[in-house]
Design a protein that fits this description.
single chain, alpha/beta, six-stranded mixed sheet, five-stranded parallel sheet, globular
């Protein structure tokens, strides 16, 4: 087993050539646009904004923008607003860096396709190779963890400032659920590097996890309206009318999905949220140990083994989704 201090260079060596190509591209391009997936979460935003901050800190003459849709609570409460460059930005050669997104059709802004060079940095299972240079590492709990590993490989000459480190730290904390899920020795070493850069842990946690009164009402509703299947799959449904009553948006439908994570007898849990704009139901699925991303892929989704997303076009499909998840635990019980 490698010593903790050996883990960073071990992971760096695994992506040595890709890292070098990415550094060369960042160095050579004057204009850089950083993209990520639609309906952003804290890791994807932390990684995106942390990378922009690092580039501007070390290459102040470059034009760097972050692009994508907004989030009703994370922006601007936790993260700054996305940039809104005019069309002239894209009329000259530019570099596109797409973070935390395994599918080209889920990139939040389609202008990534116009880039002279496209880079993908992702920690999800690789389902769509759409960039010229790709770094994919599913052993990383967060895309922020992977990105910091890459930046450290560029050498000690380049600064990791407190601001950049804070964005990355929020990403690591959020995707690991405060270091409870899929956390490795490498994750903790990255966290150590970020803390050494000056991250204020308490301030970061207060910003990310502060609740409002409406949040309590949302939680109360879920606790009073969840269902549990025969084999321990918990789920709750938030239709459009309920979202309006609770004063929440589609993006916040999964806020309470992890209420069931430490409950005996529950092996997987889901939020099912109506999205009137896209006329579908968005599903977030989590599990303790049994991989559920295979089931997610049956319903136009995918993700990590224990954290995935899916889509239903009608609630008529919900029984089939729950049945497929149930089958996972029937097999486990028989084993």
């Amino acid at each position: 087993m490698p010593k903790v201090q050996d883990l960073l260079p071990v992971r760096e060596r695994a992506h040595k050539w890709e890292y070098q190509k990415i550094f060369n591209a960042i160095r050579d391009y004057k204009r850089i646009a950083i993209f990520r997936h639609i309906m952003p979460d804290p890791d994807c935003l932390g990684c995106q904004i942390g990378l922009k901050t690092w580039i501007k800190d070390n290459f102040p003459d470059k034009e760097v923008v972050c692009l994508g849709d907004t989030h009703p609570t994370l922006i601007p409460k936790v993260f700054p607003e996305m940039d809104k460059p005019d069309n002239s930005f894209f009329e000259e050669p530019f570099l596109a860096i797409i973070v935390d997104c395994s599918n080209g059709n889920r990139v939040a802004d389609p202008r990534w396709k116009d880039a002279s060079l496209k880079i993908k940095i992702d920690h999800h299972p690789d389902v769509d190779q759409f960039a010229d240079i790709e770094v994919v590492d599913t052993d990383m709990v967060a895309n922020s963890e992977l990105t910091v590993n890459m930046l450290l490989s560029f050498g000690s000459y380049y600064d990791l400032t407190k601001e950049a480190a804070t964005w990355f730290y929020i990403g690591v904390v959020a995707d690991s659920n405060r270091f409870m899920y899929n956390t490795s020795l490498h994750t903790f070493q990255i966290a150590e590097v970020l803390l050494d850069a000056g991250v204020d842990i308490q301030a970061a946690y207060n910003t990310l996890y502060e609740k409002q009164i409406d949040d309590l009402k949302n939680t109360a509703y879920v606790l009073n309206h969840f269902n549990i299947s025969k084999h321990g799959v918990a789920y709750y449904i938030l239709d459009a009318a309920t979202q309006e009553k609770l004063n929440i948006t589609v993006e916040r439908g999964k806020d309470n999905v992890n209420l069931f994570q430490n409950v005996e007898g529950i092996g997987a849990w889901c939020s099912i949220t109506e999205d009137p704009k896209d006329q579908c139901w968005r599903v977030s699925i989590r599990s303790k140990s049994v991989p559920i991303n295979g089931v997610a892929s049956m319903f136009e989704g995918g993700g990590h083994p224990n954290a995935a997303g899916a889509k239903l076009w009608s609630l008529d499909d919900l029984p089939r989704l729950i049945d497929e998840l149930d089958k996972l635990f029937v097999d486990e019980e028989n084993y």
